[in-house]
Design goal:
elongated, Rossmann fold, alpha/beta, 10 helices
């Protein structure tokens, strides 16, 4: 970094980034098509809704702070046609949303590559990304960012995996006190709460489809709040 902080002055030893809506503008670049495809798949499977109705309910769900999984919410909201299994309809939506080909035109938020390279001069930099591994790997490949991190960790919530599992692996590998890690991400229920449960510091990127979610416990209260990741260095005193 340009300020040449000494090790003693630096607030953290390791910065742990989320990918979607933290480094990559997923909400604008990928969410519209993915949500439309998920709605279409659920309708074919038996969701009692039109594509327009499903899309509107999807948008309202994310604005309303409802924490129910979106696919279950849609099934409960609209119901399913006779003979259709509600759980199967929700699963079809989940599969269409998360297991998909990634558009080759995606890009990180402006100046993210430069910021990561700058931070890497003084901090360990790690990526913890949640979702289908093949899909997330494709995003990383298209963005050409694998060389920017000391480690890349995948967790798949559909397999019962949690970000704290990856956070624990990072701590085991790097062996620093918990307060020397900063988790940076857009979800207070995972990037924030699961990191704070381990004693980490946290920075909530209040952007994208989960930006309306409000903390419901002390663990979900972030240490820092930014609206865009390019505010990170200034707001977190890096």
């Amino acid at each position: 970094m340009s300020d040449n902080k000494t090790d003693k002055m630096r607030p953290f030893a390791h910065l742990v980034f989320d990918l979607d809506d933290t480094l990559l503008d997923t909400s604008r670049q990928l969410l519209p098509r993915a949500s439309r495809d998920a709605c279409a798949a659920m309708i074919v499977a038996g969701l009692e809704a039109t594509l327009e109705q499903c899309g509107k309910a999807w948008d309202e769900h994310h604005v309303s702070q409802d924490r129910h999984e979106i696919f279950t919410h849609l099934v409960e909201h609209f119901g399913v046609r006779g003979g259709s299994d509600a759980a199967s309809v929700a699963q079809r939506g989940f599969h269409a949303f998360y297991n998909r080909k990634v558009e080759s035109t995606i890009s990180m938020f402006p100046k993210m590559r430069e910021m990561l390279l700058d931070l890497h001069k003084n901090y360990g930099i790690h990526l913890v990304t949640a979702g289908n591994r093949a899909t997330q790997d494709e995003k990383i490949r298209i963005l050409k960012i694998s060389n920017l991190f000391d480690g890349i960790y995948h967790i798949d919530p559909s397999r019962g995996e949690f970000k704290r599992d990856a956070f624990n692996r990072i701590m085991s590998k790097t062996a620093c006190p918990p307060e020397q890690y900063l988790s940076i991400g857009n979800r207070i229920d995972s990037d924030i709460a699961e990191a704070k449960a381990l004693g980490w510091k946290t920075c909530w990127v209040r952007y994208g489809e989960h930006s309306s979610m409000l903390p419901t416990s002390a663990l979900e209260e972030p240490d820092f709040v930014i609206d865009m990741t390019n505010e990170l260095i200034e707001k977190c005193h890096l």
